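Cross-check.
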Amino acid sequence: MDGINKIEKKGKGLLAKLGPWFFLFGIVIAMLVGFLLGADYINTYSDNWGYIAGTLAGLGFLVGLISAMGLGTITKHEISQFLIAATALVAVGLAGTLIAEIPVVGVYFSGITLCMLLFFGPAAVVIALKTLWDLGKN
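Predicted model, tokenized:
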């Protein structure tokens, strides 16, 4: 039994260390891909876009799952702030077609918000479901 407890503690430590790296990696990838998307280096109708979008969504899901377990970068006290920020990001992301009309920087900003939406959306859904679950239990 003592060996199992050591494995569980070691696993939690690894997830606690990987959580911030997944978060940072997701943000960097989202900004880089969003910039390339705005510069028309990436086409959203290609197969590559599906892999990129899936990777961003998968990273977001992992960040949300790790945070929901209480091991990630988003602590229990920061959940409401994260969900408010994610809601604002969704609103901006939905207005992405209007933002793209801004001369020079609009297409870049639109691409970056789309990729941020792909990254933060799944994380926000997982954390929101965990929060609703916790509220329903009490």
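The chain has one domain: 2-137. DSSP finds five helices and no strands in the chain. Passed to J.P. for a second look.
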